[in-house]
Design goal:
The protein is mainly α and 116 residues long. The protein contains five helices and no strands. The longest helix is centred in the N-terminal third of the chain and has 18 residues.
Length: 116
């Protein structure tokens, strides 16, 4: 399984090539993996973006609306065949940065979460 760091690196590579849809998906996966690694969420293979946003929003209420927005964006570009955009990628990146900076870091086993 990939770590949050692995997903962030993949997102950056995709964004550099202009593949914002792929970059958005990888950055949302990075957030999910980060929360798994920190023990905020229980690792769960196959968790959907909507399930992730609901669980993460309960655990991190200040981010609930932004997590729902990130999940919706993930679904739009992953399954809705909508084009990703730089502003969309930047919103998800900014959310990831805020969550990473938040308190409550706990190290646990490597992430087993993969959003479908």
């Amino acid at each position: 399984m990939l770590t949050a760091s692995d997903h962030r690196a993949a997102a950056a590579r995709l964004a550099e090539t202009g593949d914002y849809a792929g970059a958005i998906c990888e950055r949302v996966r990075a957030i999910a993996a980060e929360l798994d690694e920190r023990g905020v969420l229980r690792p769960l293979t196959g968790r959907t973006a909507d399930e992730f946003a609901a669980e993460a929003g309960q655990a991190l209420p200040p981010y609930a609306a932004d997590l729902r927005g990130a999940a919706m964006l993930f679904d739009e570009v992953r399954y809705g065949q909508r084009a990703g955009s730089r502003p969309g990628y930047e919103r998800v990146t900014e959310l990831d940065t805020r969550i990473r900076a938040s308190a409550g870091r706990r190290a646990v086993a490597p992430a087993a979460s993969t959003l479908r």
